[in-house]
Amino acid sequence: MSWTETLRTGLAAVRSHGLRSALTVLGILIGIAAVILTVGLGLGTQKDVSAQISSLGSNLLIVTPGSSTGTDGVRGGFGSAATLTRADAEALASRTNAPDVSAVAPEKTTSTSLEANDTNWTTSVTGTTADWLDVRSRELENGRFLTAADDTDRADVIVLGSETATELFGTTRVVGQSVTIGDDDYQVVGVLAAEGASGSEDLDDIALVPLSTASEQLVGGNARNSVSTIYVQAASTDQLSAANQETTNLLLNLHGITATDSADFTVSSQDALVSTATAVYRTLTVLLTGIAALSLLVGGIGVMNIMLVSVTERTREIGLRKALGAPPWAIRRQFLVEASVLGLAGGVIGAGLGIVAAHVLPGLLDTSIVVSGAAVAGSVVVAVGIGLVFGVYPATRAARLTPIDALRSE
Amino acid sequence: MADVFDAFPSTSTTSTTSTTSTALAEPGSPVIELVGARKTYRTGSIEFEALRGIDLRIEQGEYVAIMGPSGSGKSTLMNIIGCLDTLTEGDYRLAGDDIAELDEIDLAQIRNLRIGFVFQQFHLLPALSAWRNVELPLMYRQVPVGERKARAAAALERVGLGDRVANRPGELSGGQQQRVAVARALVGEPDLLLADEPTGNLDSQSTADVLGLLDELHQQGRTIVLITHELEVAQHARRIVWVRDGLIQSDEVIDR
Question: Cβ of A322 under 8 Å from any chain B Cβ?
């Protein structure tokens, strides 16, 4: 009996019990679709996070207060300590101190309410310097950005993100308008271009004021001179590690700390942030995929169950085939092929369903799902494998039936 | 690939085909030769001797009925002759081949090449059309599909069902179904046609029909062994072997 004959027989057997086969296939296909979706969701989230981190700018080092506990450069957490100051940022900006650093942008961020023409909007207001625009790789839609003079003068000027402008004024053409924060009026001098592609709305819902203005009017008290983050841009990708070294040494020096271990700040590169985030999401993905794989196991047990029923039901057919000269392995192969057909059907339909869901769900759930070709191909192979593995026992049972007993069964 | 997975290597098919033609060419040579055949079944500690020393020789071209009450060992004898079971003791030669020592796979091959079965229950596969049922024995040899279809059609023509090739068993009467089974038994050109109560499930008209067909096949030189408990059926044969308590009680040739 050739392979094509066996396949034809297997397909006929599967088709002759349509509903039963369909339910068995359903068990497999749910498992396969779940695996493809969880893997896709994991990959999609990793991609989103990477994109978000890259959208901060290029060749960036991010200096945050608080110490790192990891040994691999993994950020231990944002410290609440106000250990970074404006002076630190100015020291880093000096070419003599840090020759591989091209630009520095300190950020002092607070969340507050903006008011314009009786419209209120709460957003994060960041005090920063003129270099911010370059460091964060942003562009202006109209107007101008903050200048060094604004900072020196502690000018009451503000640059709005496109979304913030729209929320307050209904338009982005708002240069010259006035925004009130607390008791002070700020003049809008520019509006940032939307960062649409990154998919993160935070980038467009911001407001920027001169750092000196922020220290004076928005965040007073003890935190007056502190900054929450310093973005340090290396002159080129090749100089990134040198810039990292210079930044670390300079800050240790300024803070009077001798041991690197007791640093009161953390310098992270974008790569380190990406790999940290990726590691977290990878663990999550593995966990979810494991759960999805369990449902595949259940599907496999379903295949075994149905194949055992099929063998019992067709005992007489097996006896007849044996009487007519089918050797045991031909019988075994017939049932293995039948089980694989169930697995293959589940795999292909499940993969199709997974791919469709991967295109439909992101629109509904606001997450990215990346369908990986390897996951799809792997799932189909696994599905056929499940059919085979769970078909072995029923097929062997069929092959072991003696023709006399099988023929006599009712 | 087909060679590896085909049930029987083509060499053995060739050699057996030549044996078959030799056997058919020489009427009078033994098809079945049982010497001191014993079969003991063991269930736990209980032993049951189904066959207690049977000597039986059936020549090429004979039409033999094996009769006996239930429990006589008649069915066991049929299983032994049909190579569905092996002897506990004694010798069995089928068309010259000693098959006492063969394993399951070799027995399957012998059944496929040497024996055509007709069962009381027909044992047709309900999902397959008549010709798909008939071609089954050829499928377990290396016969290409075109030849299989032609030979199946010819065998169906031979049993008078040339116009029912594409019908499924459910669309045929009992008598027609049993004729399909006879066609399936014939299609592989076996040395022996082994019919186990072939009319047990048929009405009198279909019985006459099927027995007439067996008579015709006998006249064409087929070797037929018929197992039955009905005398009218047995009387179509030319020789009746009575089995009782695992032994041959009588063995008589019917003169016509």
Answer: yes
Structure tokens at A330: 């031909």
**A328: closest chain B residue by CA:** B105
CA B25 to chain A, closest CA, distance in angstroms equals 25
- How far is it, in rounded angstroms, from Cα B82 to Cα A323? 9
C-alpha to C-alpha distance for B231 and B182, rounded to whole angstroms: 21
Most A CBs within 10 A among B13, B84, B201, hence the mutation to make, goes to B84
Rounded percentage of chain B residues whose pLDDT exceeds 90: 70
CA distance A205 to A194: 9
> Cα separation of B209 and B207, whole Å?
5
CA distances from residue A9 to A62, A89, A383, B148, B197 in whole angstroms, order as listed: 65, 77, 20, 16, 29
pLDDT tens for each residue of B65-100: 999 988 899 989 999 999 998 899 999 999 888 887
How many Å apart are CA A87 and CA A107, to the nearest integer?
Answer: 13
Answer yes or no: do B112 and A407 touch at CB < 8 A. no
Q: Are A48 and A368 in contact (CB under 8 A)?
A: yes
CB of B24 within 8 Å of a chain A CB? The answer is: no
Paired tokens of B136: 């089954």
**Site from B136, B143, B186 to mutate, A interface, most A CB atoms within 10 angstroms:** B136
Q: Is the pLDDT of residue A87 over 90?
A: no
ipTM here: 0.86
CB-nearest partner of B108 from A12, A320, A322: A322
Residues A312 and A17: beta-carbon distance below 8 Å: no
Length of chain B: 256
Quote the Cα angle for B182-B185-B186, to 5°.
90
**What whole-number distance in Å separates Cα of residue B255 and Cα of residue A54?**
104
Q: Phi/psi zone of residue A162: left (φ > 0), alpha (ψ -120 to 50 degrees), beta?
A: alpha
Whether residue A322 and residue B139 make contact (CB cut-off 8 A), yes or no, is no
